[in-house]
Design goal:
With 365 residues, the protein is mostly beta strands. It folds into three domains: 60 residues; 111 residues, no CATH class; 140 residues, no CATH class. 12% of the residues lie in helices and 38% in strands. The protein has two helices and 22 strands. The chain has a six-stranded antiparallel beta sheet, with no helix packed on it. The protein is rod-shaped and about 115 Å long. The two termini are 29 Å apart.
């Protein structure tokens, strides 16, 4: 194309030589000026600005490698909006990324693909469900501990401390004739204590592939590499690139690759916990005393056995009880701790990325 413009210019110069009048000379000069402007515009569109060219042109510029519009590339509308080409390498996450070549020394992107999570959690178990002595006694104003389900019954708790070792508990005496029945509360099982194993918590993002992109940058190197030697090293490809999720790849860079960066995660382990206690055998004797300080005067105390499923009630058939209540104590007959089912200690959370970068690379040759 440029040779055609050169021939046309030579023709106009010959016309200057043959011109016989000043009018013809002036007309020919103007024609030559217009021709030079036209050639400059065509060269600008065809070869791009000088600072966009890969190297000084040699020979026919617009057919040389410096031409960014060669092979119809400028007719591909999918190429619009992409960043200039970079050298892209990608490989297994366990393989170290190679260094950038001397003529493209700047790392402009590093990212990953195939994101997942590596997680393991400590084991979770539960300690025994220990037997607990009854919480105490409840004094009812209703017959047989409200056996008739009277609405809003009246009752007075006579309770031991929690935890209780069974030693004597004294409260202000509840006089005889002021209540109708006494309920001996049952034994219970204490909650199990979660026990986390010694294994460490592992909760970290992992990926199958990582990538690195290299660029020449905007500053010319002190020791430039000749264009003929600017060949992508083994494992690298020339790729256009763009943030986000753009449209189709340009025809001359059809191989699409997507990589991510800015990784975040909420990985962790669920808390170790224990279910409800069960399967214990806890049998105790709960005694009540007419007098304070658990006075063992004959005829002034009485007791009842309780267990996990039994909370006996005693009362007077004649109405109110003729016995006062001044103190209580307890002791074990049998205690076999129960158990709890453990839960938790499982991997939780997720990993994600906030942004992706798309690369369109030259087809594999």
């Amino acid at each position: 194309m440029r040779n055609s413009f050169q021939s046309l210019a030579i023709h106009q110069l010959n016309a200057l030589t043959d011109a016989g009048t000043s009018h013809e000379y002036s007309h020919s000069v103007k024609s030559l000026q217009l021709l030079v402007v036209a050639c400059s515009l065509v060269a600008l569109v065809t070869c791009g600005r000088a600072d966009e060219q890969r190297a000084p042109c040699e020979g026919a510029c617009c057919t040389a490698p410096c031409d960014p519009c060669r092979d119809g590339a400028c007719e591909d509308t999918d190429a619009l909006g992409w960043e200039p080409p970079v050298l892209l390498w990608w490989g297994d996450a366990d393989d170290p990324a190679p260094g950038c070549p001397a003529w493209a020394p700047h790392v402009v992107f590093e990212g990953i693909d195939g994101l997942s999570a590596k997680q393991s959690c400590p084991s979770c178990a539960c300690g025994p469900a220990e037997c607990k002595l009854p919480a105490g006694i409840v004094v009812w104003d209703e017959f047989m501990c409200n056996a008739h389900d009277v609405p809003d019954p009246k009752f007075t708790p006579f309770l031991a401390p929690d935890p209780w070792d069974g030693s004597c508990v004294t409260h202000p005496t509840i006089p005889a004739g002021t209540y109708s029945s006494v309920q001996y509360l049952s034994t219970t099982l204490a909650p199990c204590t979660p026990r986390t194993g010694p294994e460490p918590i592992v909760a970290e993002p992992v990926w199958a592939t990582h990538a690195r992109a290299c660029s020449a940058g905007s500053t010319p190197p002190e020791d430039p590499v000749p264009p003929a030697e600017q060949v992508p090293p083994a494992g690298f490809k020339e790729c256009l690139w763009r943030r986000g999720e753009p449209g189709p790849c340009p025809a001359h860079h059809p191989e699409r690759r997507v990589f991510h960066h800015d990784i975040e995660n909420s990985l962790g382990c669920t808390a170790c916990a224990c279910g409800e206690p069960m399967d214990g055998d806890c049998h105790a004797l709960l005694r009540r005393f007419d007098l304070p300080a658990c006075d063992m005067t004959p005829g002034k105390w009485r007791g009842n056995s309780t267990d996990l499923d039994r909370s006996p009630c005693s009362g007077s058939l004649g109405g109110t009880s003729p016995i006062s209540l001044g103190s209580i104590n307890a002791r074990w007959y049998e205690q076999h701790p129960g158990r709890c089912d453990p839960s938790g200690g499982s991997p939780s959370g997720e990993v994600w990325t906030n942004e992706q970068t798309t690369f369109c690379c030259e087809a594999t040759r």
